[in-house]
Write a structure and sequence with these properties.
By secondary structure, the protein is mainly α. The protein folds into two domains: 196 residues, Fumarase/aspartase (N-terminal domain) (Fumarase C, Chain B, domain 1), CATH 1.10.275; 279 residues, Fumarase C, Chain A, domain 2, CATH 1.20.200. Strands 4-6-7 form a three-stranded antiparallel β-sheet. A two-stranded parallel sheet has the order 1-2. A two-stranded antiparallel ribbon has the order 3-5. A hairpin with a 4-residue loop joins β8 and β9. The protein starts with 7 loop residues before the first strand and ends in an 8-residue tail after the last helix. It is an enzyme of class 4 (lyase). This is tyrosine ammonia-lyase. One of its GO terms (biological process) is secondary metabolite biosynthetic process. It catalyses: L-tyrosine = (E)-4-coumarate + NH4(+).
Length: 513
């Protein structure tokens, strides 16, 4: 990946998914909008809340309990204690901890929401949240425990608590007590003001941060799967005319046309082609643009859903200091992210299924048009004891099956929670976590199929009548050869598969974008 040189500014400017990705990967500096007018607008919300408290106004989560306890009045002498109680009783997350990349994305998403100036928080809170990103102070956030309406309450309680000097953070590569890191950096832990804990927690930042990361991975996976398909067309001596421009003009889905154009470029389709084994290839080659094109066409609306959520004030209540109104609503509801992530995991799992079918063709002498069984490169006198990619194909089948199994939509499994106050919830965070898992599995399928495709291309090149590879594929084959030599005698491929996954995570190969 290239370094994102422009600083990412939190404030009135909208962020893109690429900004969040740059912050998550520590590739961009950050800054908080600092002009006097903006700071005054942020401060005005907190001041308006203070004025309401002086008048003993009724404000949800400020002078009332939370959730179904909104009917319980909180005396003014206890209002200051209420924020700490909110993040304390929500400290019950379980499961794995979000990794550093995901945690930075969560912090960025929450800060961007609060920067709209309608959450009733102080400038100092924005500054400290920004400082966490700037100094890479990462709250340790368990990934399980959110139903995605009333926001990501439990996971975001770990953000609120660590800003207040409680619980644990990752800092300088070490797991530390938040209070000790505050002291080391010369910071006073925040004492959260009325509404500030609620503003931090009652939003969609976890699901949105994960969605940004999932989108970026899916975008690269689309390009990689297209390149793998091109390699497999060569390895299987397929028919490149399946991707003819005139053919796709007759069914002009834009993403489908784009994938076909990428394949034409990779295969140098205008060049003379080898004799064909089949007039029509099997669907995993012939229909690759139709499968991958659905993902390509979906990325635009997925981006729209994610970026609107990212650039929204998604907490409750909304504080309109200009009109001096408190607007009670449901902007913490993560329905758009839930639907986007449920859709994305289905789109991505179909990519896994496509590549798995291509690999099945590669290893099978009934369908691979003369390649050795299981793509073994062993000489004839040792062929009987070598099994090449046999186990890799079995593993790929397992990863694909698990990816397909995880496409069950999370958003339809709403549960009535919290004394039937949260009686319809989004499950957006579970959907986002599912999407990340499906991406992990599909990237494993892609890594296996890429190495197998590269082996198939190498085997074809050993023939006396071998034709030169088209330029794009020749460059890819040469790049892969630096890390992944041909499999001649059987060897354990786990290390190479893991290296390939690392290369995919780094978006190491420049592909079609």
């Amino acid at each position: 990946m290239t370094t994102h040189l422009e600083p990412v500014t939190f404030g009135e400017r909208a962020l893109r998914i690429e900004d969040v990705l740059a912050l998550a990967n520590r590739q961009a500096p950050t800054q908080l909008q600092g002009d006097a007018a903006y700071r005054q607008r942020i401060a005005k919300g907190a001041q308006f809340l203070d004025s309401l408290l002086d008048k003993e106004g009724v404000i949800y989560g400020v002078t009332t309990g939370y959730g179904d306890s909104c009917v319980v009045a909180v005396p003014l002498q206890h209002v200051e204690a209420l924020p700490r109680h909110l993040y304390t009783f929500h400290g019950c997350g379980l499961g794995k901890l979000l990794d550093a990349q995901a945690t930075r994305a969560v912090l960025a998403a929450r800060l961007q929401s609060l920067c709209h100036g309608v959450s009733g928080v102080r400038v100092e809170l924005l500054e400290r949240l920004h400082a966490f990103l700037e100094h890479d102070v990462l709250p340790l956030i368990p990934e399980e425990g959110s139903v995605g309406a009333s926001g990501d309450l439990t996971p975001l309680s770990y953000v609120a608590a660590t800003l207040s000097g409680e619980r644990e953070v990752m800092f300088g590569g070490e797991r530390r007590q938040a209070i000790d890191v505050h002291r080391e950096l010369g910071w006073e832990p925040l004492v959260l003001r009325p509404k500030e804990a609620l503003a931090l927690m009652n939003g969609t930042a976890v699901m949105t941060g994960l969605a940004c990361l999932a989108f970026a991975r899916a975008d690269y996976l689309l390009q990689l799967a297209t390149r793998i398909t091109a390699l497999n067309v060569v390895a299987l001596q397929g028919n490149p005319e399946h991707f003819d421009e005139r053919l796709f003009a007759a069914k002009p889905h834009p993403g489908q046309m784009q994938v076909a154009a990428w394949l034409r470029k990779d295969l140098a389709i205008d060049a003379p082609t080898a004799p064909l084994h089949r007039l029509q290839d099997r669907y995993s080659l012939r229909c690759a643009p139709h499968v991958l094109g659905v993902l390509a066409d979906s990325l635009n609306w997925l981006r729209t859903f994610i970026e609107i959520e990212l650039n929204s004030a998604n907490d409750n209540p909304i504080i309109d200091a200009e009109e001096e109104r408190v607007l009670h609503g449901g902007h913490f509801y993560g329905g758009h992210i839930a639907f986007a992530m449920d859709s994305l995991k289905t789109l991505v799992a179909n990519v896994a299924d496509l590549l798995d079918r291509q690999l099945a063709l590669l290893v099978d002498v009934r369908y691979n048009h003369g390649l050795p069984s299981n793509l073994s490169g062993a000489p004839a006198d040792r062929a009987m004891i070598n099994h090449g990619f046999k186990a890799v194909q079995i593993g790929t089948s397992a990863w694909t099956a698990e990816a397909l199994k995880n496409t069950m939509p999370a958003s339809v499994f709403s549960r009535s929670t919290e004394c039937h106050n949260q009686d319809k919830v989004s499950m957006g965070t579970i959907a986002a976590r599912d999407a990340i898992r499906v991406l992990e599995l599909t990237e494993q399928v892609a890594a296996a199929t890429l190495l197998a495709a590269n082996q198939g291309v190498w085997l074809r090149a050993q023939a006396e009548d071998a034709r030169p590879l088209p330029p794009a594929l020749a460059a890819m084959h040469e790049a892969l050869a630096k890390d992944f030599p041909p499999v001649i005698e059987d060897r354990a491929l786990e290390g190479e598969l893991r290296l390939c996954l690392k290369r995919i995570a780094e978006q190491h190969w420049r592909l079609h974008a």
